[in-house]
Structures are given as C-alpha cells and as structure tokens.
Design goal:
Layout: H1 20-28, H2 35-44, H3 55-58
Length: 63
C-alpha cells in the first residue's frame, strides 16, 4: 500500500499483514517471556511491519 499523504503512515484498514499462522510462528520464535517483552519489542522498531501489534484486532476470526 502506498502512502499518498507523505506522512509515512498507512491507515490500519489498508495495511497488509502476514497470515495468522505465519505471524504466530514468527512471534513464537522470538521467545518472549512476558507480555511486557512483547510490547517493548513492538515499540522498538524491530517488529516487522507486516506483523500487527494488536493481533486480536487484526485476526478476529482466529483469536
């Protein structure tokens, strides 16, 4: 998806994410010991952009 506003931000409904299975596998491989570690990782800029921070909102059917 292209950002036409020049802000670098893409609307949530326009973002394309990995499948639930692929995202879950990737996150599990990171070996987080707590929710706090996961949140810190999300804010660090290390999280790939195609993995949502709020997985329950994106993967409603699977969650």
């Amino acid at each position: 998806m292209v950002d036409c506003t020049g802000t670098g931000t893409i609307a949530l409904q326009n973002k394309v994410y990995r499948s639930f299975e692929e995202a879950h596998k990737y996150v599990v491989q990171q070996h987080f010991k707590s929710r706090e570690e996961y949140i810190k990782w999300c804010k660090s800029g290390e999280k790939p952009t195609d993995i949502p921070t709020s997985h329950a909102a994106v993967y409603k059917e699977q969650w």
